[in-house]
Write a structure and sequence with these properties.
The chain is of the alpha/beta class. The chain has a single domain, classed as Vaccinia Virus protein VP39 (Rossmann fold). The protein is built from eleven helices and nine strands. Strands 1, 2, 3, 4, 5, 6, 7, 8 and 9 form a nine-stranded mixed β-sheet that branches. It binds S-adenosylmethionine (SAM).
Length: 273
Amino acid sequence: MDQVTGEIVTFYEQRYDEAARLDRRPQCRLERIRTLELLRELLPAAPARVLDVGGGPGAYARELLTDGYQVRLVDLVPLHVKQAREGQPPIDAVVGDARELPEADGSQDATLLLGPLYHLQERGDRVRALREAIRVTRPGGPIAAAVISRFAGPIDFVASARFDERMVAESRRLLTDGVNDGSTGFTQAYFHRVAELTAECREAGLVDVVIHGVEGRGGRRPRRRSTGRTPRRSSRRRCRWRGSTVPSPISSRPAGICWRSAPRRSGEGEPQR
Ligand SMILES: C[S@@+](CC[C@H](N)C(=O)[O-])C[C@H]1O[C@@H](n2cnc3c(N)ncnc32)[C@H](O)[C@@H]1O
């Protein structure tokens, strides 16, 4: 296990309860609703085979199983795989790395990457994960991946009233290189700009790349005022969720993206391995 992998496993096994995340806060519930909406638009009809790479404890895999899909989950963290297998309904899950998937070529009708791209800090690793998703997906099958916007950190620091000198410096650094070192929260992570994401997708061999905002401004709810009063109507309206199908640089976690993989013809459009 390399150092980055070790830190991600330690984070999720010892410091963060991913199994509770999507129910914990309103913006996470919004993330779940919007992600499921996008998946249901994008995926081929059930009972198609869906590989959920970085599927965690199985929140989306479980919904898709219930919808009638044949779902297999791959995740880096053994605890998540155990939770996926032991939950109801149980999921067919294995420990594995998005950069080297334990699946046969073309064995899936669709592949999800809702996690690995924002944990892989090296561009080469992210492109490799995308190529692996293409390899295991049948020609033309959809691939859906999630990233976190480059602007998520600074927006969160302001919204949570943590925008002191240290966080201003951290924001400048994050906006420059997108690399999260974990000392200000979360763990090893990478925050994308839209153009960079599109370039990585194209380099991996994907075509028809479409980027969808997931949370938009709804990702940051207004803090309750010290008076305890409900925010004024205008601020409620400003923070209401807006689903978006255009590049949304202020989407926080994740700026969801969906695209179709390149059709493979002999000698043309074949993804490099
Ligand atoms: C925040 S969780 C997201 C879980 C779920 N997909 C969701 O969207 O709610 C990120 C997941 O990605 C997994 N992950 C990170 N890097 C990975 C990699 N290289 N290969 C496979 N899984 C990875 C983590 O173990 C974790 O379960």
